[in-house]
Each structure stands twice: as structure tokens, then as C-alpha cells.
Design brief:
26% strand; single chain; four-stranded antiparallel β-sheet; 6 helices; alpha+beta; four-stranded mixed β-sheet; elongated
Length: 178
């Protein structure tokens, strides 16, 4: 913890509140605390094994058609399925497992952090630790980030992706390209 006059600040609260909000933390305090931090981008986190896999949803010729959807099956997670930090399973389309088992990519498992990057940009969620499905299937609009739990907790990445700073950077960059 760092003390600045009447403020007692932890590094995590400074990261999640002080930098992006109009909290009265001085720039000197921010720099002093930030000296200890290692600043990394997603590529470095992947290269250094904090994130072990990044994958968007299924592409290609076996992409499901609307006639493939069923009432009960494997949830097909689209950008509009990520709502207020959660996966809304009630609105997700479902596919028979016989179809999804044939896909090459897009399988998401508990503790994966999800982010939408096409259509609705910047919606973030994570796959709950307990789901009544063997996996979730992602569309190409959604990417999962799987963390190495010994190096990076998935909920930290989730909160980072939801932060004002990340969201503003993500949306600025996504306006240039997907």
C-alpha cells in the first residue's frame, strides 16, 4: 500500500480506479507505484506463458447454418450473447454436439475469458467454472483467452478487459481494423 496524504492506495485499486477515474491520486504517486510494475501487451503475456491460448470461433466451410440450430445442445456463443459481463445462455443459439464435434476450432472451456471483436465490439465475459456442457462453441465474432492459472488468474484478465482504459484502447484500435 502507498500513502498519499489522506489516501491509502493499493496497486490494484490504483490500476482499476485511480488511473482511469477522476480520483485525486497525484501523478507523482502514480509514477512511484508504477515503477514496480511490469507493463506487457497481450503478445508478451502469450509469449511469456501467462496466456496459453488465444482462439476465435470456427471459420470455414462447416460454419453452421440457421437450419442446424436446435432447442437443446451446445451453446453457440455470438457477440450478442455476451451481456453485462456474463454469457446469456437463454439467448444463445444451440447446436447438436454431433455437428460441433466436427469443428476444428472455437471450443471454449471453463475459465476462458471471452471478448467480442466483430459487430458488437468489446463485450467481455468468462466461461463459468461449472457449465452443463462439455464445452461452448464460439463464432468468429468472439475470441477466448485461456490463462495459465499459475501465472495469471482469469478473473484478473477479465477485469482488465472490462477496464475503461482497455475498452477505450480496444475500441479505438478496432475502429481501424478487426
Amino acid at each position: 500500500k502507498v500513502t498519499n496524504n489522506q489516501y491509502k492506495v493499493s496497486k490494484s485499486s490504483l490500476l482499476l480506479e485511480g488511473i482511469n477515474k477522476e480520483t485525486n491520486f497525484s501523478d507523482i504517486l502514480k509514477r512511484k507505484v508504477a515503477v514496480d510494475w511490469n507493463v506487457s501487451d497481450i503478445g508478451e503475456l502469450y509469449k511469456d506463458n501467462f496466456i496459453v491460448k488465444i482462439q476465435d470461433g470456427n471459420h470455414g466451410e462447416i460454419h453452421p447454418k440457421s437450419s442446424d440450430y436446435v432447442d437443446k445442445g451446445i451453446p453457440f456463443i455470438m457477440a450478442n450473447t455476451l451481456v453485462d459481463g456474463k454469457i446469456d445462455f437463454t439467448i444463445s443459439k444451440k447446436l447438436p454436439q454431433e455437428i460441433t464435434d466436427k469443428f476444428r476450432t472455437g471450443f471454449s472451456y471453463p475459465k476462458d475469458v471471452l471478448i467480442s471483436h466483430k459487430g458488437t465490439v468489446g463485450e467481455v465475459s468468462f466461461v463459468p467454472e461449472k457449465i452443463p456442457y462439455p464445452y461452448l462453441m464460439l463464432t468468429p465474432q468472439v475470441t477466448f483467452y485461456r490463462t495459465n492459472p499459475e501465472r495469471l488468474q482469469y478473473k484478473f484478465l477479465y477485469y482488465l478487459f472490462k477496464s475503461d482504459y482497455f475498452q477505450s484502447q480496444f475500441k479505438r484500435l478496432s475502429s481501424q481494423s478487426t
